[in-house]
Amino acid sequence: MKTAQLPPIRVTAAVREQIEGVLLEGETLSHFVEQAATDAARRRKAQQDFVARGRASLAHALESGESYVADDVLDAMKSRIDIARKAAEKGRGGISKRRA
Q: pTM of the prediction?
């Protein structure tokens, strides 16, 4: 695979020192910048996908007229969690690992 270069960026000496201060053993500044750019791109892609799913869900709700009250959905989820938690505690002989 052919490689490409990212454009050089200017930063203050303090920023460069800060980055160099967190490099792992054997890690280069170039690798750090590449990884940071890759992570940021993945985060943005995930955000864009999340927004797209939300918009599609809204469009579907508007078209179908089917929607749910958030409090009702959250209550149903809490109920399922409570049931699962009780079943897990019953499986451990009723002993809870949570501390008060």
A: 0.64
